[in-house]
Specification:
four-stranded antiparallel sheet; 44% helix; signal; Protein Inhibitor Of Neuronal Nitric Oxide Synthase; alpha+beta
Length: 170
């Protein structure tokens, strides 16, 4: 029971962060549209002074299918923004990977997902022949998500070498 309540609380926090990101994007688009028309506002808003998203959003670099890539990009941005806004949550690679894996497995239950997170300049990688793959890049971090077929007789271990690596935001 307590686990279900905690999970519900986390989902509400993630939904709030996602809603904040959408509102911020809409505000930025509106601001850009007004600037292109040459109109100027006499009154600034609070979001003009303090942006909701302190770090640039992660963007999709490549993927096997746009719907899968967009879903991965959305999940990475939710996880990273949650980690930036709530320091006790999504602060390690393991926590981010577990969240992304859990959300993807809701839509792809027969697929095993592998998630690699590292600093942009630290290493490079490329996967282009899997059923599902996505490469997402943020100003500081790069995320690779790819799939393999789930085999009921094989137990996957997700305790990667960098699983406890803390994500550091400027």
């Amino acid at each position: 029971m307590a686990g279900a309540i905690i999970e519900l609380g986390l989902q509400l926090v993630f939904a709030g962060v996602q809603l904040s990101a959408v509102a911020y994007e809409a505000h930025q688009k509106s601001k850009a549209k007004n600037k292109s028309k040459g109109s100027r506002s006499l009154h600034g808003s609070l979001s003009d002074l303090t942006p909701i998203s302190p770090q640039p959003r992660a963007v999709l670099i490549s993927c096997s299918a746009m719907t899968f890539g967009n879903e991965c990009e959305r999940l990475v941005n939710i996880a990273f923004q949650t980690g930036q806004n709530f320091k006790g949550m999504m602060s390690t690679c393991s926590e981010v990977s577990a969240y992304i894996r859990k959300e993807l497995e809701k839509h792809y239950p027969d697929t095993q997902f592998h998630i690699v997170i590292g600093e942009n300049k630290a290493f490079g990688f490329c996967i282009d022949d899997g059923e599902y793959f996505a490469e997402i890049e943020q100003e500081r971090y790069r995320v690779l998500i790819f799939s393999s077929k789930r085999n009921a007789q094989t137990k996957a271990d997700h305790h990667d070498a960098n699983s406890q690596m803390s994500l550091i935001w400027k």
